[in-house]
Amino acid sequence: MSYWSLITSAGLLVQFVMLTLVLASVFSWYFIFERVQFLSRAKKSNENFEERFWSGMDLTQLFRQVNASPDPDSGSEAIFRAGFKEFTRARQQAEMDPEATMTAIQRAMRVVTNKEEDKLDNHLSFLATVGSISPYIGLFGTVWGIMNSFIGLGNTAGQATLATVAPGIAEALIATAMGLFAAIPAVVAYNRFSHRAETLVGSYETFSEEFTSILHRQIHALSRKSTVSAAPSRPRTETGNSRPVGDSGLA
User: Fold this and answer.
1) Per the domain annotation, does 168 fall within a domain?
2) Where is this region: Disordered (predicted)?
3) Which helix (H) or strand (E) holds 169?
4) How far apart are CA 193 and CA 199, in angstroms?
5) pTM, to two decimals
6) Is residue 236 part of a domain?
7) What is the pLDDT of residues 84-108, one digit of tens each?
8) How many domains does the structure of the chain reveal?
9) In terms of DSSP H, where are the helices of the chain?
């Protein structure tokens, strides 16, 4: 007996189960390699951008640079671009409401954060599905194969020996082995990628809060400056004198 002969001699339903598990395993490994590369790029790009952000560079200049050549793998950069774009739009208005402006900025950054989180979680649901149902699919093929083997033994004349029972049971157990082969890497990869995605999302949220604090101070400073510049200037008079301050009294 060989593994290939056991697979080819199995029933059609068991072969279909094996083919399904092989395809699930192939797609799982493809998504595993794709997620490894994407999460590595996302972590590196995020660290590079935050290093530039906290280097003391002028935020307007940084916005122009990242807006000219955006990095699709950096979540913090996407959050920065969305928040600073709303800040620039509010700064160009004649009258700026600080609270309404901050609400708009936080909403824009929250939308981008959710999109970046979806990008990090991409394909993880497939890995979770393969990891959870592949053993059951393999077990179904095994049960079906063993059932057919015993039915065939019941229809044969004479005494059943181990040589006649072993091939049918062996070809049925291959389905379970293939189910475990597809499920174990998918479960390990899902747990690993979920942890890395949660770590990156936490860094995105931390950056969003810190950037919100910076913009909050800038907006209130601009609001106070615009209020002072718009206030009408009144001449102050000295007590007991009708002349304004600064008048020399010369004819």
Assistant:
1) no
2) 225-251
3) helix 162-230
4) 10
5) 0.77
6) no
7) 998 888 877 767 677 888 888 999 9
8) 1
9) 3-8, 12-53, 59-68, 75-91, 98-120, 124-155, 162-230
